[in-house]
Amino acid sequence: MHTAHPVEATPADRPIFGLPVDTAILFSNHKGVYKPGLEKSRTKLLRKLTFLGSFLDADEKIAFVTLGCSPYTMLEQSTLGVWVVLIKRALFVFTNKRLLHIPTTGKADYRGSIAQVLYQDCRRLHVQGSRLVAEYHNGTREKFTCIPRRDRAIIKHFH
Asked: How many structural domains is the chain composed of?
């Protein structure tokens, strides 16, 4: 006789590579359904962020990680052409308090700088096509491009 073993649920808040992570959001699709493929790809991104622990507040948790491009000028676009996507590559880390923008190399390795966008400083943070647009209270806007299609619907839940 075959008896089914009970499936143990993964704890939603567990450290991965020493980082406080909310796995309920990080490893789920836009409908909130856990996907093993998403766990694999996002764990690879988290491996690139092991340095991040010293930048996080004590009560801050990583909710989502994705790739994209830093804002670039028309001069950079016209000079570099399609290479601008590799040169301006970045990782975006959504926490429960802010968005961390981490410029990386073409292979997503840390370049030694980090920027933040506090949710409270944004009038609106939204996805427009393949761009993540941060509209600040003072009227300025930043556009982060090349956000992966599967991540766009999840980003809409932040802010």
From this structure: 1
Which pLDDT belongs to residue 138?
94
User: What is the Cα–Cα distance from 48 to 110, expressed in whole angstroms?
Assistant: 7
Look-up of token digits 């406080």: 20
Cα(96)–Cα(159) distance, integer angstroms: 9
Residue with tokens 């939204």: 126
CB-side neighbour CA atoms (13 Å) of 80: 13
Task: Look at residue 37 and tell me if it is in a domain.
Answer: yes
Distance CA 79, CA 47 (A): 33
- Whole-model pTM? 0.84
- Residue 25 within any structural domain of the chain: yes
β-strand 122-128 against 115-118: which pairing, if any? unpaired
* pLDDT tens column, 87-110: 889 999 999 999 999 999 888 899
CA angle 116, 121, 18 (to 5 degrees): 35
Mean pLDDT of the chain: 87
Q: Does residue 144 lie in a domain region?
A: no
Asked if residues 102 and 142 have their Cβ atoms less than 8 Å apart, the reply is no
Distance between CA 70 and CA 101 in Å, rounded?
8
Residue 96 belongs to domain spanning:
14-52+60-119
